[in-house]
Amino acid sequence: MAYVPRRRYAYALAYLLMACAGVAAAYWPAPSVRTATGGGISPQLYVWDAFLLVGGLASGFGAVTDRWVGEYIGLPLLVAVFGVYGVSAFFTALASESPASIAGGMALSSIALLFIGRWRDLGMIRRTASVPLIRGRPHGG
Amino acid sequence: MAAEYLPTVVTALLSGGGAVFIGSVAKSWSSLRGGARARERETITDLAHRADLADGRERRAARDRDYWRRISGNYGFQLRQAGIKPDPDDPVQPSDLPSQTPTGR
Fold first, then answer.
1. What is the pLDDT of residues A78-113, one digit of tens each?
2. Among A3, A53, A87, B63, which is 20 to 30 Å from B85 by CA?
3. Rounded to an integer, what is the distance from CA A25 to the centroid of its chain?
4. What phi and psi values does residue B35 have, to the nearest 5 degrees?
5. Which residues of B77-104 are buried (b: 16+ CB within 10 A; e: fewer)?
6. A133: number of Cβ within 10 Å
7. What three-state secondary structure class fits A2?
């Protein structure tokens, strides 16, 4: 029988850090994202912060309580957040004609792609969870 | 050059993320109201249990198939020993019939 951990603390801690990053970014926005969202304090910047906070909290809740719904609804927000972050880093590299931010852009974009993969896996789990339980299972679940 | 498109790209990413978020909330709500299990561990464990059951069914079917193959071979031998020619004498298995597709479906 496959071993599935009851709680995923590494995921939970990672998502909690992302939620904290959302709060911190409201006070001290990342320069590349601030530039990408218009240069000043713009509504898009706060939407980005809110996505980071809500996505981190929802996904963290799912990881701690072993409920797929948390990550399933939180990850699309985090994909958007890291997508914007990655694009902003690439833009910074282009605008400043310095390749220093290219590595950051690649790393941040890769996180967005990893989250897309995880979200698709959770979609499979959501569909499987809708199939009725097998009667007389030997395990408690 | 890239600066002209950047706000559009950022808006598209944020809008797309928001739209998928709303869709995910709706799908989750619908699944949970339809009786889906909420816990990921329970779902995966049940999936693994289904795979174990499928393996067991396959092993049982193979065991039964081998048993009846042996029995039918014995019957054919007994018929020939008694001077009776089995009918059909040289049977063709279904996958070798001309009507079957090359993939065996």
1. 999 999 999 999 888 888 777 778 888 999 999 999
2. B63
3. 15
4. 100, 15
5. eeeeeeeeeeeeeeeeeeeeeeeeeeee
6. 14
7. coil
Taking an 8 Å cut-off on Cβ atoms, the answer to whether B49 and A1 are in contact is yes
Cβ <8 Å between A4 and B35: no
Respond yes or no on whether ipTM tops 0.90.
no
User: Contact B36/A94, CB-based, under 8 Å?
Assistant: no
- Which residues, 6+ apart, have CB-to-CB distance to B80 below 8 Å? B86
Which two structure tokens, joined as six digits, stand for B4? Answer: 């002209």
**How close is the nearest chain B Cα to the Cα of A85, in Å?**
9
Q: How far apart are CA B37 and CA B22, in angstroms?
A: 21
B34 vs A91: CB contact, 8 Å cut-off? no
C-alpha A25/C-alpha A115 separation (Å) is 20
- The CA distance from A82 to A115, in Å, is 9
Answer whether B2 touches A (CB < 8 Å): yes
Alpha carbons A11 and A17: distance in angstroms, whole number = 10
CA triplet A36, A37, A38: central angle to 5 degrees? 95
| Cα–Cα dist A81/A19, whole Å | 12
Look up residue A46 and give its amino acid: Y
Question: What whole-number distance in Å separates Cα of residue B103 and Cα of residue B95?
Answer: 9
What is the number of other CB atoms lying within 10 angstroms of the CB of residue A16?
Answer: 17
Closest CA to B20 of A128, A73, A133: A73
A62-71, B18-27, B78-87, B90-99 — which is least confidently predicted? B90-99
Which pLDDT belongs to residue A4? 65
